Amino acid sequence: QVQLVESGGGLVQAGGSLRLSCAASGSIFSINVMGWHRQAPGKQRELVAAITSGGSTNYADSVKGRFTISRDNAKNTVYLQMNSLKPEDTAVYYCSAAVFGARPSNHWGQGTQVTVSS
Fold first, then answer.
1. Are 60 and 47 a contacting pair, CB within 8 Å?
2. How buried is residue 111: exposed, middle or buried, by Cβ count under 10 Å (0-12/13-18/19+)?
């Protein structure tokens, strides 16, 4: 099992920055991909950014050039640096971990609220 704990959300003005952190514990050696998703009120959860165990990254078009996902393997932590925030970035942000192979599984954190005021 994998446990994920997010932190770093909050209220920020448009144009500001926030950094989200996701600390992983448990069977972290089995994680293939970690990511950040978000869900705004009345909308479906969407992928924001992902990073593989090899360090490859992927971003939603809406955040390219503004958000950066990174990982610190020594701390078992993944970060999402969010710059030039917009009101439409307001959502609950969830950390995820995907395990591939013979017994695939997906794991989620509890979510952290990000609110961007105009």
1. yes
2. middle
